[in-house]
Amino acid sequence: MSVPVLTVENLKVHFAINKSVGFLRSETSSLRAVDGVSFEMYEGETLGVVGESGCGKSTLGRAILQLVDKTDGRIVWLGDDLGELDRQTMDQKRKEIQIIFQDPLSSLNPRMTVGDTIEQPLRRFHPEMDGTAREEAVREMMRNVGLDPNLRNRYPHEFSGGQCQRVGIARAMILNPKLVVCDEPVSSLDVSTQAQIVALLRKLQRDTGTSILFISHDLSIVRMMCKRILVMYLGRIVEVSTREELFEDARHPYTRALMSAVPIPEPDPERPPPTILEGEVPSPLDPPKGCVFHTRCPQATRWCEKEVPPLHEVSATHRAACHYWNGEDELAAESPR
């Protein structure tokens, strides 16, 4: 396999939270948004990151972009440890790593025309370009994302949500980045527009060869977009696999529960009903000991309450963080009593 362009090693992002414990007294707790995540990405790859709200997906993406500070671990981009770079060097790296935000309208400056918004990265990172060159680049980029270049002098409020997201995509792609972090880029759009935006992202990736980290809570969208999928729960990776292996042979109970809830156009009458997970997602201020999923897992044992499961190797491209990844009956005898 080729050398990874991005390597994340034991990444932790913890936030200090102050809470009152009495009159004029407070104590500080640690919110573990990302808690020991490791993975690699390769050139031209689309890696999906899925999980429920609050599992740490967006924090992971922002930490890679150096928009939030990491607590521990390493983020290595093209051989450079981003945490070791000075501010000026990191600012130059940002033209290689871009982001597309969840809410297309709020991510755009309402006082700037869409043309100026798309042009802004060129002004920042390519000061050698004159106005004519920037104008032509903006027009070409607007055509590439399916927008009429003659609308460049209009403002975001004059566009639909899908059009605003195309503006956001154009702003991110105009620098020809090597990695784009898509933070739930279609979750606020209607179903038909979601499919159009996913098709657009796939086309742009084919044309440019950029890598995409696609963050979403919607497995059906991720299945359309991504060739490899990483499943997160409460700040940790519970399963990572190729798309085919994950949907055909998911090994973690949380992944199976997520997939059972995915709607299908023509459901099989004999298809089992969706798995309803009991209880609420635990607070990242006080995550469960052992396996973080054991408080909601239908097959949890005392072993799960005591031991943190490693990412077991199911195959060369499939890993699952579950003590019973290979069948409960086979491992039950090994469970400590």
Quick recap:
The chain has 337 residues and is of the alpha/beta class. It has helices at 57-64, 87-93, 114-125, 131-144, 161-173, 191-208, 219-225, 243-249, 253-260, 302-306, 328-332; strands spanning 6-22, 25-41, 46-50, 72-77, 80-81, 97-100, 179-183, 211-216, 228-233, 236-242, 312-315, 318-320.
Keywords:
alpha/beta, four-stranded antiparallel β-sheet, 337 residues, single chain
- Beta-strand percentage range: 15-25%
Strand order in space, largest sheet: 6-7-8-3-9-10-12-11
Helix content, binned percent:
25-40%
Number of domains: 1
Structural class: alpha/beta
**How many strand elements?**
12
Termini separation comes to 42 Å
Average pLDDT metric: 90
Radius of gyration: 22 Å
CATH fold label: Rossmann fold
Number of helices: 11
The CATH architecture assignment turns out to be: 3-Layer(aba) Sandwich
